[in-house]
Amino acid sequence: MTDKVVVITGGSRGIGRAAALAAAARGYRVVVGYASNKAAADEVVSAIQAKNGKAIAVKCDVASEQDILALFEAADGFGTLGALVNNAGIVGKSGVRVDEMSAERIQQVMAINVTGSILCAREAVKRMSTRHGGKGGVIVNLSSVAARLGAPNTYVDYAASKGAIDSFTVGLGHEVAGEGIRVAGIRPGLIDTEIHAAGGEPDRAHRLAPMVPMQRVGTADEIANAIVWLISDEASYVTSATLDVSGGR
Ligand code: NAP
């Protein structure tokens, strides 16, 4: 058990929500970031408080540097930062080829999935690094198996954004390895969340399930279990590494 603060971007729904509940169950004080769905974030906070956990909801669109600064200021007021889960992420409309993509779409995916994650990590490192007087901590970056597969004819821009996250996990991990901070990634496979509906194909995960060696989609809880393991001391020798949690895909 730990009473440290964990900041989870996009903690209001899907994988982030499951990670918030799992972290709270292990004693973390959870900062639940959300982009616009306040009701969903408040529900996560209520569910945590109902089990005597501690959580606050903070609006933070990770495409906004101002929002990110406000998120970490709120976290500062809640306790000592021990972990960041860079979970917020989006896909553009599914089934769009690169020769059909608008600059606006590509920039939005990169701003949220890549720049947002790097800026959140910057704020976390400033607080957790022993170089800055911090006590160490962990950063977990949500990648995707799309980083390996490329997502042709689906959303190559999204896959490329997650490829960037994989490089970021390696590089930042090395940069802060001597400063008490571990950096790890997770590549989820097909997980049953609302992200597929956001891409215009609600049934995508279930449609592709037969292609998964384990023949099924994964649950948000199965990703959350990997997240809370990575932020725990049980993963004390894991850094600059990304774990596939994908049923073999
Ligand atoms: P989801 O169900 O669509 O939930 C997205 C979450 O991110 C929500 O809490 C949402 O907040 C938040 N969000 C969206 N845009 C944001 C922004 N601009 N700033 C801050 N927060 C934002 O997604 P998910 O499936 O749980 O995915 C979570 C992460 O796992 C993503 O990085 C995704 O790429 C990755 N992943 C998912 C799968 C999968 O199959 N589901 C597979 C591989 C990787 P609101 O509630 O306020 O909208």
Task: Please give a quick description of this structure.
Belongs to the short-chain dehydrogenases/reductases (SDR) family. 44% of the residues lie in helices and 16% in strands.
Keywords:
single chain; 249 residues; alpha/beta; Rossmann fold; 9 helices; globular; binds NADP nicotinamide-adenine-dinucleotide phosphate; oxidoreductase; Sc_DH/Rdtase_CS; NAD(P)-bd_dom_sf; SDR_fam; SDR family oxidoreductase
Strand content: 15-25%
How many helices in DSSP terms? Answer: 9
In total, how many beta strands?
7
User: Approximately how much helix is present in the residues?
Assistant: 40-55%
Strand order of the largest sheet: 3-2-1-4-5-6-7
Total individual domains: 1
Q: Report the average pLDDT across residues.
A: 98
CATH architecture group name: 3-Layer(aba) Sandwich
CATH topology group? Rossmann fold
The CATH superfamily name is NAD(P)-binding Rossmann-like Domain
Q: How is the main sheet built?
A: 7 strands, parallel
For the record, give the distance between the C-alpha atoms at the N and C termini, rounded to a whole number: 33 Å
Query: Given the C-alpha coordinates, what overall shape results?
Result: globular
The unreliable regions are none
Q: Enumerate the distinct ligands.
A: NADP nicotinamide-adenine-dinucleotide phosphate
- The SSE order reads EHEHEHEHEHHEHHHE
Structural class of the secondary elements? alpha/beta
Query: Which value, in Å, is the CA radius of gyration?
Result: 17 Å
CATH class bucket: Alpha Beta
Domain Ketoreductase: 4-201
Pfam family, one: adh_short_C2
InterPro entries: KR_dom (IPR057326), NAD(P)-bd_dom_sf (IPR036291), Sc_DH/Rdtase_CS (IPR020904), SDR_fam (IPR002347)
Family: Belongs to the short-chain dehydrogenases/reductases (SDR) family.
